[in-house]
C-alpha cells in the first residue's frame, strides 16, 4: 500500500536528518557554541521569514479552513519565544537587531519565493511547501533531545525545548490537513506536493548554513 502523503513527507524529513545533524549551525546549537554574529544572522533572517510565512499561512488556511487558522496562527506568533532564548545568549534584543530592518539574504528570499510560487499554483501545494517549517524543526529538536543537547548548561537548551514542545501539535495538525485535502486533488498534484515539500526541506538546511556564512 502507498504511504499517505504525510507519511511520505515524514520519510523525507527522516532521510535528510543526518545532513541537518551535521550542519555546523545545528551542531553549534547542540554544543552551546555559536558566534554572536551567527545567532544574530539567524534571528534576523528568521524574523523576516516568519513574518512572510504568517501572511502566507493566513492566506492559505483562510481559504481552506478558517477555524483551523484561528486555532493555530498563535503558534507562529509564539515563535518569538524561541528567538528570545537565542537573543539572550547573544545579549541583544529584537529591537536592536531589527532596526534598521535588515535585508533578506539569498536563501531567505529563495525559500519565501518557493512558498509563494507554490501557493500561487494551489492552496494544496502552498500548504505542502509550508509544512517543512514545523516538520523539520520538530524532528530536529527531538533528535537533539535524544542526544542530551538540552542539558542545563547549554544556553540554547530553551530553543531546543521550545521546538520539541510547541511545534508538535502544529505539525500534526498541518499534516492532518494535508491528508484530508489529498483525495480532493489529482495524483499529479499529490506527487508535485512531495517535490515541493522536499525542496522546502532542502531550503531549511540552506537556511541554517546561511546563518554561519559570514560569521
Ligand atoms: C526557517 C524556519 N523554518 C522553521 C522554523 C520553525 N517553525 C523557523 N522558525 N524558521
Keywords:
mainly alpha, 11 helices, thiaminase activity, 0% strand, Thiaminase-2/PQQC, 215 residues, EC 3.5.99.2, Heme Oxygenase, Chain A, binds 5-(aminomethyl)-2-methylpyrimidin-4-amine
Descriptive account of the structure:
The protein is mostly helical. The protein has a single domain (5-211), classed as Up-down Bundle (Heme Oxygenase, Chain A), CATH 1.20.910. Helix content is 80%, strand content 0%. The protein has 11 helices and no strands. Helix 3 packs parallel to helix 7 (106-121), helix 3 (36-64) runs antiparallel to helix 11 (187-213) and helix 8 (123-146) crosses helix 9. The longest helix is centred in the N-terminal third of the chain and has 29 residues, at 36-64. It is globular, with a radius of gyration of 17 Å. The mean pLDDT is 93. The structure holds 5-(aminomethyl)-2-methylpyrimidin-4-amine. 5-(aminomethyl)-2-methylpyrimidin-4-amine is lined by residues 46, 49-50, 79, 133-134, 137, 167, 204, 207.
Remind me, CATH topology? Answer: Heme Oxygenase, Chain A
List of distinct ligands in this structure: 5-(aminomethyl)-2-methylpyrimidin-4-amine
Helix-strand category: mainly alpha
State the end-to-end CA separation: 47 Å
Write down the secondary-structure element order.
HHHHHHHHHHH
The proportion of residues forming helix, as a percent range, comes to over 70%
What is the CATH superfamily?
Heme oxygenase-like
* CATH structural class: Mainly Alpha
The count of DSSP E runs of length 2 or more, i.e. the number of strands, is: 0
Shape: globular
How many domain regions? 1
If you average the pLDDT, what whole number results? 93
Catalytic activity: 4-amino-5-aminomethyl-2-methylpyrimidine + H2O = 4-amino-5-hydroxymethyl-2-methylpyrimidine + NH4(+); thiamine + H2O = 5-(2-hydroxyethyl)-4-methylthiazole + 4-amino-5-hydroxymethyl-2-methylpyrimidine + H(+)
GO molecular function: thiaminase activity
EC number: 3.5.99.2
Pfam family, one: TENA_THI-4
Amino acid at each position: 500500500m502507498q504511504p499517505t502523503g504525510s507519511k511520505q513527507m515524514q520519510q523525507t524529513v527522516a532521510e535528510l536528518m543526518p545532513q541537518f545533524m551535521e550542519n555546523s549551525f545545528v551542531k553549534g546549537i547542540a554544543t552551546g557554541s555559536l558566534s554572536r554574529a551567527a545567532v544574530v544572522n539567524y534571528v534576523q533572517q528568521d524574523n523576516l521569514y516568519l513574518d512572510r510565512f504568517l501572511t502566507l499561512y493566513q492566506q492559505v488556511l483562510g481559504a481552506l479552513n478558517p477555524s483551523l487558522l484561528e486555532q493555530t496562527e498563535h503558534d507562529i506568533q509564539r515563535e518569538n519565544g524561541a528567538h528570545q532564548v537565542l537573543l539572550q545568549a547573544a545579549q541583544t534584543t529584537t529591537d536592536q537587531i531589527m532596526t534598521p530592518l535588515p535585508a533578506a539574504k539569498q536563501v531567505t528570499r529563495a525559500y519565501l519565493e518557493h512558498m509563494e510560487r507554490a501557493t500561487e499554483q494551489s492552496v494544496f501545494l502552498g500548504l505542502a511547501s509550508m509544512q517543512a517549517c514545523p516538520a523539520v524543526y520538530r524532528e530536529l529538536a527531538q533528535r537533539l533531545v535524544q542526544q542530551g543537547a538540552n542539558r542545563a548548561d547549554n544556553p540554547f537548551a530553551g530553543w531546543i525545548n521550545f521546538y520539541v514542545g510547541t511545534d508538535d501539535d502544529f505539525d500534526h495538525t498541518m499534516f492532518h490537513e494535508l491528508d484530508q485535502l489529498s483525495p480532493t486533488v489529482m495524483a499529479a498534484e499529490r506527487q508535485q506536493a512531495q517535490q515541493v515539500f522536499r525542496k522546502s526541506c532542502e531550503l531549511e538546511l540552506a537556511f541554517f548554513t546561511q546563518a554561519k556564512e559570514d560569521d
